[in-house]
Amino acid sequence: MGLRRTSWMHFSALCRRAPLSTAPAAREQPAAGPGAEPVCGPAETARPPVPAVDFGNTQEAYRSRRSWELARSLLVLSLCASPALLARHEQLLHLARKLLGQRLFNTLMKMTFYGQFVAGEDQESIRPLIQHNRAFGVGSILDYGVEEDLTPEEAERTEMESCSSALERDGCGVSKREKQFQAHRAFGDRRDGVTSARTYFYASEAKCDSHMETFLHCIEASGGASEDGFSAIKLTALGRPQFLLQFSDMLTKWRRFFHHVAAEQGKAGLAAVDTKLEVAALQESVVKMGIASRAEIEDWFTAETLGVSGTLDLLDWCSLIDSRTELSRHLVVPNMQTGRLEPLLSQFTEEEERQMTRMLQRMDVLAKKANQVGVRLMVDAEQTYFQPAISRLTLEMQRRFNVERPLIFNTFQCYLRDAYDNVILDVELARREGWCFGAKLVRGAYMAQERARALEVGYEDPINPTYEATSAVYHRCLDYVLEELKHNARAAVMVASHNEDTVRFTLRRGPCVFDVCSASQLRPSILQRLSGHQWLVTEVCTGQPARGGMEELGLHPADRQVYFGQLLGMCDHISFPLGQAGFPVYKYVPYGPVMEVLPYLSRRALENSGVMKGAQRERQLLWQELKRRLCTRSLFHQPA
Predict the structure, then answer these.
(1) By C-alpha distance, which of 96, 117, 234 is closest to 604?
(2) pLDDT tens digits for range 437-464
(3) Which CATH number is 268's domain given?
């Protein structure tokens, strides 16, 4: 079994070799930024103002729903709010299936939980719902909701095997990855503590091919259902997670080395995008650490590769691990515990290299299909120990396919402490290289699991300390992206949120983020936690927007730069008013046989219980509309 030594620069080369045909290279575009002229935007013409949206008008919000559907929603959401029922929901489902039999059980589920959160069993049966929602301005993002029904023990065994290299499994080598990027048996079942995201476990290359075919069907169906459709994929469905762990470890070490050198140059504490290394001092450090001789590094930092500023920022630094640079042969970083230099290179067997290449080829096939049928492809975020590699692979896809428009969207989880830095770095990279920035902003799906893992394994908690802090980061990222959209008509963002305040913030119909009139209405503890976000505290205290939402920035829904997304069966009082007002809004529409989507239904029930404030308001609005229809004798309302 021959071993090959590989690293990110080899992986980057594979990104270019794996495609089955040649993709066009991104063209140079003028950098966009504050004060720049819009790029490729529509001609300035008089347009109507951004439409007003009233999320409290139940008659308009539920105009698309029949009364029995409202009653079902009220029943299901009320049951999801019962801690006693949720604690025993799996046992209750098993008992109901045993007492009723499979046929009656399926009927009961379709009348309740399945009917609320799942569109149907196959693409043919879900077509009427997709067409109905489209008639009321709401698009669809198809998601085949079937998951493998693995026991926790099976999931743990599968994960440990697929996250370890051949050398580690054979006992011939010890993992040199940092603790965060090693597989840990206690967290082998990645479903544990996750309520709002699907989980894929690696079984075989054939299974990954099957997942790719499923994604292809969803992309094709999305293209047929809408001229401006979306589809979503997960990279853990397309290959061994071992590769994502290894490259995440490498990318994180390389980025940490940058900040280590920056601290040596007296530049610690600066924002990532503002930190710049003096190249002359960096060359001295490289020689002192024994990475290379002075003669070897003469051609590393030239005007051709880095410009003439004499400095190196984080984006320049990350480009050095590309195979086109001479430095890539010398990739080593200091181990902060031992002080020794260690190579970033990993050892792969020939079979592992073939598996890695197949993962890249699957990504390429999906991106090409999306481009062919005119569907935007969103790459979902996953756990932090996979995410650096997922984001870098997504970036490689964006460089190739986001030439004319934002086809590939990266996902940013705003409950992460480094979310804002990651957003501004990607925006800046898109400006420099001339491709179209596309992003989906979410709060995040793995909070409980990530915190427990960091505490147990022994590394820094990557999650923001409070929900309020996460909301502050979300709004800060959104503000920055909206400002970019104002100056760059080729950029786009998906605001994926069930939080009504966040949607209001995007539209900026009111003067304040949290819908309060003065800072006195916020608890002192919240203001204390937000003290690190001065721009937001100022806004809350003064009642004046920090920058501006769509209305203030002149971002009209007809531009189709700002999209909104919610899950089917949740927050219709947000989705449908947006759609009816002309905003591009989408529902995640899962489908699949009843028994095979039960894990998905369990997560939906748990997620509704975890979002008590929003779910409580939704129940109130549903009850309010039912009472209105009863009083006005319109219980037999027919959507039109």
Answers:
(1) 117
(2) 999 999 998 888 899 999 999 999 999 9
(3) 1.10.238
Letter string b/e over residues 267-277, b meaning 16 or more CB atoms within 10 A of that residue's CB: eeeeebbebbb
Tokens 């894990």 -> residue:
599
Please give the C-alpha separations between residue 554 and each of 107, 181, 200, 431, in angstroms, as whole numbers.
49, 43, 41, 21
Range of the domain at 288: 247-346
Query: What are the beta bridge partners of residue 142?
Result: 589
Q: In sequence order, what DSSP letters do the residues of 379-396 get, joined into one string?
A: E----TTTHHHHHHHHHH
In angstroms, the CA 282 to CA 269 distance is 18
- Residue 417: C-alpha distances to residues 193, 410, 421, 428, 476 (Å): 20, 17, 9, 19, 12
pLDDT digits (tens, 9 = 90+) for 113-132: 999 999 999 888 999 999 99
Q: Does the pLDDT value for residue 402 go beyond 70?
A: yes
Domain membership of residue 297 (yes or no) is yes
Q: In this structure, is residue 419 part of a structural domain?
A: no
Q: How far apart are CA 557 and CA 551, in angstroms?
A: 10
Asked whether residue 232 carries a pLDDT value surpassing 50, the answer given is yes
User: What would the pLDDT profile of 33-60 be if each residue is shown by its tens digit?
Assistant: 434 444 444 445 567 788 889 999 999 9
Angle subtended at Cα 191 by Cα 189 and Cα 196, rounded to the nearest 5 degrees? 165
Please tell me the total count of domains within the chain: 1
Domain presence at residue 526:
no
Higher pLDDT, 627 or 538: 627
Domain-located, residue 235: no
Residues 579, 405, 321: CA angle, nearest 5 degrees: 125
Strand partners, 5: 347
